[in-house]
């Protein structure tokens, strides 16, 4: 069976009850969009598609499914070591740290800065999708979180400048434009 399908099934199980913050839409819709787009990029492999489905699993669901180590073992078994390495690159190491947000985000940017290009390309797609969803929700009155949106746009700008530049110029331009579009309404 395809490791992409295995990744999708793991993600569907782990994120089954998770919802998007503002709309309450199934979280899986975000993962499907990210994985679908990742698989359309040149030079991406099956492990990238599987990792795109699983990119938030360790951060969001570890305490619900036996802990990070158990989940990592399941990813390795079902999707392979390469997928696990990519997922670990996409996982914010500051998750669970009791530090101010600005310090945690700095740690996460430093971690990502050292990751391979394939990880950065998936992170670009993920961030674009998150920002586009926030933008859509604000434009259509589905969210009133303008302050959060402005903060997230600023964090995304730092992420692009400090960690993701040089990974994929087309995605970088799209992210920069999405940030600008969001800032225009916040």
Please tell me about this protein's structure.
The structure is a single chain. The protein is mainly alpha-helical and 186 residues long. The protein folds into two domains: 1-91, Hypothetical protein af1432 (Orthogonal Bundle); 95-186, no CATH class. It has ten helices and no strands. The chain has helices spanning 3-14, 28-38, 46-54, 57-61, 68-79, 81-90, 101-113, 117-139, 146-164, 169-185. Helix 2 (28-38) packs antiparallel against helix 3 (46-54), helix 6 (81-90) crosses helix 8 (117-139) and helix 9 (146-164) runs antiparallel to helix 10. The longest helix is centred in the C-terminal third of the chain and has 23 residues, at 117-139. It is globular, with a radius of gyration of 16 Å. The model has no long low-confidence stretch (mean pLDDT 95).
Shape: globular
Strand/helix succession: HHHHHHHHHH
Helix content range of the residues, please? over 70%
Work out the number of β strands: 0
Alpha carbon gyration radius: 16 Å
Global structural class: mainly alpha
Low-pLDDT segments: none
Distance between the termini: 45 Å
Strand content: under 5%
Largest sheet: none
Mean pLDDT metric:
95
Number of helical segments with 4 or more residues: 10
Tally of distinct domains: 2
């Amino acid at each position: 069976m395809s490791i992409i399908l295995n990744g999708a099934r793991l993600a569907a199980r782990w994120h089954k009850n998770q919802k998007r913050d503002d709309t309450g839409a199934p979280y899986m819709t975000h993962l499907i969009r990210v994985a679908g787009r990742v698989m359309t990029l040149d030079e991406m492999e099956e492990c990238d598609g599987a990792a795109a489905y699983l990119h938030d699993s360790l951060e969001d669901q570890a305490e619900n499914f036996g802990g990070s180590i158990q989940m990592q073992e399941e990813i390795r078994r079902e999707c392979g070591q390469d997928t696990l390495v990519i997922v670990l690159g996409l996982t914010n190491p500051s998750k669970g740290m009791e530090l101010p947000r600005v310090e945690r985000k700095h740690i996460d940017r430093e971690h990502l800065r050292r990751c391979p290009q394939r990880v950065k390309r998936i992170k670009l797609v993920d961030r674009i999708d998150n920002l586009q969803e926030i933008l859509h929700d604000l434009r259509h009155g589905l969210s009133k979180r303008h302050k959060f949106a402005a903060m997230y746009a600023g964090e995304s700008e730092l992420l692009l400048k400090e960690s993701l530049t040089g990974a994929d110029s087309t995605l970088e331009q799209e992210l920069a434009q999405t940030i600008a579009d969001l800032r225009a309404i916040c």
